[in-house]
Amino acid sequence: MEKFILITCLLSCPILVFGTEGIRECPGLPVPQFVNISGCDKAPCALKRGQNAEMISGFLSNEYSDNLKTRAYFREIESGVAGEFPLPNDKGNTCDWLVSTTCPIYPTEDVTFMLSMPVLLIYPKNMDLDLKITVENEDKTILTCFQVLAYTT
User: Fold this and answer.
1) Domains of the chain, first to last
2) What share of the chain is helix, strand, coil (3-state, %, to 5)?
């Protein structure tokens, strides 16, 4: 039911027509076909503590993959401190969040996935971040990657 509600919300948002402005490529890695972050027309995007940051993205698969994992990384702009946002297992298993397809995925397949990333209350307020989101397969090959500026509220 949670997945249905998330799909309905994301697909009904006008942001999906235009996408989120300010999405950046990850140098040397495959780029997504689109990225739409709910509630964010243009970066930097607000991450509300105590809520989930929700997005939908699509990419063209470049190889066969049985399993997919979404990973989220951050760099705090002022201090330069960097790390990985720990995603709960139920959120990081990309195969569970695919739209109109299932794992395994095949070369040249259009893949659309959703991410609902918890923004915990313990995160400091007013933190400026550079986020990097990747989807990797069982061999740790990155199939898509994007970066976006964000801040916590």
Assistant:
1) 2-152 (2.60.40.770)
2) 15, 45, 40
